[in-house]
Specification:
The protein is mainly α. The protein contains 5 helices and no strands.
């Protein structure tokens, strides 16, 4: 199925930004002292969020500019059999806001690593779906 060039361009922009987030999250894990685990988790969340939005953009679905992963998965659900496989990704949502501002929530190294793993799974599932929809990706 071919897509318009404009739609493909928009989808690829979402993917480009998502890829930057996951790259930065993985790279930041290498920081030896005072590693910013909360920011690693935040960028993992952003990766997952942007991949979900890339899929919705491909489908030309108007989506809210939200950080709520569960809501984005719910919007994808009628269009994507794979959405049920991403239910665990909603665990990333708190990292979008609460982990970025002062308070009592501390993100551990284990949580940051797990956030990257979740984001990597979202990326894998959605890239496969985008390819099945006819989008050419590297």
């Amino acid at each position: 199925m071919s897509r318009s060039n404009e739609t493909a361009k928009i989808v690829k922009q979402w993917i480009e930004y998502a890829e930057e987030d996951i790259r930065l999250a993985k790279h930041a894990l290498k920081i030896k002292s005072s590693c910013p685990y909360k920011l690693i988790a935040y960028h993992a969340q952003q990766c997952a969020e942007k991949y979900l939005k890339a899929f919705l953009a491909l489908k030309k679905i108007d989506f809210p500019y939200t950080h709520n992963i569960a809501l984005l998965i719910e919007i994808c659900s009628p269009l994507a059999h794979w959405a049920k496989d991403l239910q665990g990704a909603e665990a990333l949502t708190p990292y979008a806001i609460t982990a970025r501002y002062p308070g009592k929530y501390i993100v551990t190294k284990k949580e940051a690593v797990h956030a990257i793993e979740i984001a990597a799974n979202v990326k894998k599932v959605i890239k496969k779906a985008l390819r099945q929809e006819g989008l050419r990706l590297p």
